[in-house]
Design brief:
4 helices, about 60% helix, elongated
């Protein structure tokens, strides 16, 4: 019923949880952590008041973060899982390349030591490159999560506003129109000449 709202200002709603006949209302304090400020009994009045505050907070959040959302949306980032696994493997190979010369020292093998010096250089380059790529992947993943959360709250707001609208009253003066070419059974009627 109530989705969690990310931090954007102190004192704003984070989450409303109905439990054990009460609404537990979580709010952000100034530094972004959540604290329970109130709990109230579940009744129609409290539900309406909390619903109004909830929708207002979502609207403020969407307005506050609209520019950032559009910026992330225009980047069109999509985290690639294959990219992630390749870079994890590259990082592992980089670590093995760095460890190889030490293995040559431990087992006193000059051949492994000379090969290890080459792998040390390649391994350190691979480790740095894969670490940078993994940071990029994590950043793209957080952008995608932010976009998904923003769009979910947009939907939540529009859905709740649509549900609050009163249905259009049906007037008895408005009659349904029937195409003169078809009768009520939607069969073609021949014109008489």
């Amino acid at each position: 019923m109530f989705k969690e709202i990310p931090y954007f200002k102190g004192g704003k709603l984070k989450q409303i949880i109905p439990m054990e006949g009460k609404y537990f209302v979580y709010r952000y304090n100034g530094n972004g952590s959540k604290i329970v400020t109130t709990s109230c009994s579940i009744n129609e009045y409290n539900k309406n008041m909390l619903q109004e505050e909830y929708l207002k907070t979502i609207e403020e959040y969407l307005d506050f973060n609209k520019r950032q959302y559009l910026l992330y949306k225009n980047k069109n980032v999509r985290p690639n899982k294959k990219f992630y696994t390749r870079n994890k493997l590259l990082k592992l190979l980089g670590i093995l390349g760095i460890v190889a010369p030490f293995g040559g020292i431990i087992i006193k093998s000059s051949l492994l030591l000379y090969i290890g010096i080459g792998t040390l250089i390649l391994g350190s380059c691979a480790l740095v490159k894969s670490s940078n790529n993994l940071k990029k992947y994590n950043r793209e993943k957080s952008f995608a999560k932010y976009i998904e959360q923003y769009e979910m709250l947009q939907f939540e707001l529009s859905y709740n506003k649509a549900m609050k609208r009163k249905p259009v009253s049906k007037s008895s003066t408005i009659k349904p129109t029937i195409n003169p070419v078809y009768d009520i059974n939607l069969q073609k009627v021949r014109k008489k000449n």
